Amino acid sequence: MTKENFQVYPLIDKKKRGEVLTSKEIKWFIQSFTDNKIPDYQMSAMLMAMFIQGMDVSETAALTDAMLESGEQLKFPGKNVIDKHSTGGIGDKASFILAPIASAAGVKVPMIAGRGLGHTGGTVDKIEAIKGFKTALDLKEFSKKLNKDGLVLIGQTPDIAPADRLIYALRDVTATIDSIPLITASIMSKKLAEGANGMVFDIKCGTGAFMRTPKDAKILGKSLIATSKRFKKKAVALITDMNQPLGLEVGHSNEIIESIETLKGNGPKDITDISIALAAHMIHLAGVEKTFDKAHKKALEMVSSGKALNEFKKLIINQGGDARVIDDYSLLPMAKETTEVKATQAGYIKMFQNEKIGLLLIELGGGRKSKSDAIDHGVGFTFKKKIGDQVKKGDVIFTITHHPHQKAIAEEIKKRFLKEVLTMSVSKVKFPKLIIEKLS
What we know:
Blueprint: H1 8-16, H2 23-34, H3 40-53, H4 57-68, E1 82-86, H5 95-104, E2 109-113, H6 123-127, H7 139-149, E3 151-155, H8 162-173, H9 180-193, E4 198-205, H10 214-230, E5 234-241, E6 249-250, H11 252-263, H12 269-285, H13 292-304, H14 307-318, E7 337-342, E8 347-352, H15 354-363, E9 380-383, E10 390-391, E11 396-402, H16 407-421, E12 422-425, E13 435-439
Parallel strand pairs: 1-4, 2-3, 4-5
Antiparallel strand pairs: 5-13, 6-9, 7-11, 8-10, 8-12, 9-11
């Protein structure tokens, strides 16, 4: 515990009135909460005050430091330890593609990933569709594997930024998620603790993202980069579109298959392009190549040569998974029935309410309604049409993969998709720009 001995009520009241909290006040509050000396209801009140009144740069820095210092911090020698963080979205399986690409090129990639959050899918949940894959490794084993193998993927541990884990659980149920200072502290406390020397951020914006507009995404990106630089870490952020699913597949086994196909060179253009771009920035930050153009070329070579696919296979083997899945997708859990969703009119796909696609997957069992729910890796959606595509009446827009007993649920999802998710246009619609802006 810090030497200071503040009172909880006056600090909450101070922030409620829009005043700036000092670094000592913030650090005392966070440490006291982590040590169970401040109850959840008072922490929730402070979070709401922070959310409504906002936090300046000094407060954001103090909050990040306090959360970082609440747990263990790893350090790795050399400048080639680079991680990537995505703010999450629908069908975002890029980590399974870009990490093996970067690793094959000589980058050490430490991935401490999360599970599903709200309408977005979780990297850890998805990789666990592969039988035997172990994500519950302690930090000692994590460090050993990174130094030895160059690529490791685990779930969040109690040792890394425990204050963030406790606070996030409250933010998730108190409508205080979409605060840029709170998001910055949450992301950076974990990323700094895992020992990466550089970070590439994928900031999603649109109807399937927590940041709905490019403006808000840019503000978050600048905040993350500023925090990285404060700790003398190299950083790049890409603002990317999340107004529709990334790739064609949504759902855990579906997305693992699409990731493998992309590493084989057969992936959809959007997931391929963004994975290559993010991996190239990692390769460049690591100093493997001196220019981004050369790094981009290197990333493409890692796919075309099969080296990236081999890195993904090694990752599976090294963490206890069944690597035969690379060539035999039947080893993944997969529901047996499909229901087609067809266009009821001719025209062009104009818009998806992308967040609702994630919520519909949860209705099918492909996400959690509560923390204790088990994930059904075998259900999902396959999109046949995306924004800008022309469709005729009766064309299949997407298919629902489900179990026989879920026929009624699938029919309800079909109705809700056509009514609540899909917007059509009689005139041509521009294809959305995938990478909106780069920040550095």
